[in-house]
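Please, why this fold?
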Amino acid sequence: MAASVILLFPTTQAVLKAEDLLLESGFAVDVIPRPAGTSGALCGIALALPAAFFVQAEKVLAAANVGFTRHRPSPGGRSRVRARRARRSVAGVGGRAGGGVRPPRSDPGNDTGTG
């Protein structure tokens, strides 16, 4: 499918209802896994349809009172939420600079010295 719009739904029932409505209306839709990095209480599956038909599909779903959220990936192809997480992890564990690697903790009760 060329340029696609991804529709996210709160429940599996909503996805299946939307798929039926759109197919009955003549739209080409694909059931796909929910894109990685999307947040919120959303169903694990989504619908993809050609971007050129989004406005008409939105009208069909609104008339049937089926709510959805349009997924808008960032220009790099990754969702905005995921891109933020990736930037945060660059500083390392605990947000410390220098890679975030902590030296082993010394245990005063476990003397491993040779003395």
Remarks:
- Residues 12-24 form the longest helix (13 residues).
- The domain at 4-89 is CATH 3.30.70.1530 (Alpha-Beta Plaits).
